[in-house]
Structure formats: structure tokens, C-alpha cells
Design brief:
With 340 residues, the chain is mainly beta. The protein is built from one helix and 28 strands. 44% of the residues are buried.
């Protein structure tokens, strides 16, 4: 009887081992961890990132630490270069390569600070943007867009260092995306009944409002202009919605990680990466413009919800906050297609 019990226990352990190996194999076939960059002394949650490919630097808004963490990417996986302190709730970051400037939006003091991209010395500021949040740079128009306040987008001329216009919105804007081959801009408005505002950048006005029906609490967003698809990450329930970028009609809804805060589309692998505070990366495959399916999940860490995908480097950078024995770090994943 004892031998049978031992045999059953051994078989159960072997089965668990096989399952663990299978889960590990699945994760490694989706994304491969190439290392991490420790951020000692950095506390609190993170917000959004930006990359300067020319300078080989990654900028991370350490919102809870009131700092911007600068990562040197000249060697894999990167190293912590320095911390820019004195921010007050840094949220969004944008790099302006032509001007060699880095813009950091701060929510608590309503400031947008410019820094020299070479020396990281202060190089100007714009004030009066209460609850400044996400930032996008329109390279063709040479303009910056900053979400702020109870519902507006500030249009900033970085050459003049001043606000040239304000686009009124129905609620505070979360993630938004600009067309590169068009004049529209799409804005997530979770506090406006889970809607998306479509903005004409030339008219500087909202020209359409799309109300999401399948889910709410829409925070992250990405635009696939090739397939004319808009990806929207929702938290209630946890879903990735795929919308027709011309009509606003939802063409697909796929389960994803909870507490999603960033998402990206990888055209080389036809995959969508969604990072969420529930501690995972959801990987979703694009079959075609109207059909998507879950490819699996990759475990990260609790609270690791902000990230940046850099297609030129085939890297996904994920911010892991310090929680107990869990250290603050930037975890680096290789997104290159797996050869079989």
C-alpha cells in the first residue's frame, strides 16, 4: 500500500513538473526574458516611457518616486544611467529628435519640462496644464499634444515653448494616438461613459464620439494604420477591443490581463502585447484585420502594468515596482519571432 502511495505521489509530481515545463515553454515561445535593469531606491508606481534611439536611452516616468529614470541602452539589457529628480508626479514623456529635446509632463504641478537630450539639463517649461498626463509628438506637424485637466488636449509648439491651442474634450483624456498618414487623433475617455473621441487635428475639434458597448474603463490604446484598426484596452471587464478605425465599429473582443495600462501592436509578428497590474503580459495574435485569438500569457509581477515596445530593437520593456521582496526594475523581453 505504501509503495502505491509513493508511486502516486511520484506520478503527481512528474505531472506537475510537465505542466510547469509546458507553461515555461509556452512563455519562452511568446517572449524571452533577456535581463533586467535594477532601480535601487525607486519607490511607488510607474507611468509611461519614451525611447531616444539615437542617444540609446530609455526614459521612465517614476510617478510615485517623483523622478524620471534614465536607462542607457548601449549594452544589453541596459543600465541605470541617472535619476532626474524634482518632478511632481511625472506621467508622460516624449522625445523630439530633431530638436534634441525630451518633454516630461507632471500631473501635480501642471508643468511640462523640456530637457536637453544630450546633457539632460533643463531647457524650458510650459506651465498651467493641471493634471498633465499622456504626451504625443507629431513629427510631421512639429507639435506636441498633452492631455490635461477635466478634459482637454494642449497643442504645444516646442520651438516656441508655448501652448498654441487647446482642444476641448468631454472628460480627462487617457491614452491617445495620432494618425501618421492622416489628420485624425483618437482619445480614450473612460470617464465619459467609456467613449473614444475622434479629433480632427487641422480643425482642432472633436468630429465624432464612439461609445464602447462591450467593455468600459478604457485606458491604453494603439493604432494599426495598415489594417485600419484601433486597439483599446479595457478594465471592466478585462478585454482587448478591436475597432474599425474608420467607423468605430467593434470587430473583435478578446480577454486580456486585468488592470491594463499599456498595449502595443507588433507588425513583424502580428501580435498585440497588453501589460496589466494583475502581473502578466497578454499576447494576442492577429489572424487578420477582423479576427484575433489569445496566444497565451507571460507572468511578470504584481503592479507591472506600464511598458514600452520598441520595434526597432525587438524589445518590450516592463516596469516592475518595488513591493516587499520584489525589487524595482525594468524587465526586458525579446519579441523577435521564434525560429522553429
Amino acid at each position: 500500500m505504501r509503495r502505491i502511495t509513493i508511486l502516486v505521489a511520484l506520478l503527481a509530481a512528474a505531472l506537475l513538473g510537465c505542466r510547469a515545463r509546458a507553461a515555461g515553454d509556452q512563455e519562452s515561445s511568446l517572449l524571452r526574458v533577456v535581463g533586467s535593469v535594477p532601480l535601487p531606491g525607486v519607490e511607488g508606481r510607474f507611468d509611461h516611457f519614451a525611447v531616444d534611439l539615437a542617444a540609446k536611452r530609455l526614459y521612465v516616468a517614476a510617478l510615485g518616486n517623483n523622478s524620471v529614470e534614465v536607462i542607457d541602452l548601449s549594452q544589453e539589457p541596459g543600465r541605470h544611467l541617472r535619476s532626474i529628480k524634482g518632478m511632481r508626479k511625472p506621467t508622460g514623456i516624449a522625445v523630439i529628435p530633431a530638436m534634441k529635446r525630451v518633454l516630461v509632463a507632471s500631473g501635480d504641478d501642471g508643468m511640462c519640462r523640456f530637457f536637453d537630450a544630450d546633457t539632460l539639463a533643463p531647457a524650458g517649461e510650459v506651465r498651467g496644464l493641471d493634471d498633465a498626463d499622456n504626451v504625443r509628438y507629431d513629427a510631421a506637424g512639429r507639435l506636441l499634444y498633452v492631455g490635461y485637466g477635466d478634459g482637454a488636449l494642449a497643442v504645444i509648439d516646442p520651438a516656441k515653448g508655448s501652448v498654441v491651442a487647446a482642444i476641448k474634450l468631454a472628460a480627462h483624456p487617457e491614452s491617445f494616438r495620432l494618425e501618421e498618414n492622416g489628420k485624425r487623433l483618437f482619445v480614450n475617455l473612460p470617464d465619459a461613459k467609456g467613449s473614444i473621441a475622434v479629433v480632427d487635428r487641422e480643425r482642432r475639434a472633436v468630429v465624432a464620439t464612439w461609445r464602447l458597448k462591450e467593455a468600459a474603463a478604457n485606458f491604453p490604446m494603439w493604432l494599426d494604420e495598415t489594417h485600419r484598426r484601433l486597439f483599446v484596452g479595457c478594465r471592466k471587464p478585462a478585454k482587448l477591443l478591436v475597432l474599425d478605425a474608420d467607423s468605430g465599429v467593434t470587430v473583435a473582443a478578446v480577454d486580456c490581463v486585468g488592470d491594463a495600462d499599456d498595449l502595443f501592436y507588433d507588425a513583424s509578428t502580428k501580435r498585440v502585447y497588453v501589460t496589466g497590474g494583475d502581473g502578466a503580459i497578454s499576447v494576442i495574435e492577429q489572424v487578420d484585420g477582423d479576427h484575433y485569438r489569445p496566444a497565451g500569457g507571460v507572468k511578470t509581477a504584481p503592479g507591472a502594468r506600464t511598458s514600452l515596445f520598441v520595434p526597432e530593437l525587438h524589445r518590450l520593456y516592463v516596469a516592475v515596482p518595488h513591493r516587499g521582496a520584489q525589487r524595482a526594475e525594468i524587465r526586458v523581453y525579446d519579441t523577435s519571432p521564434i525560429s522553429k
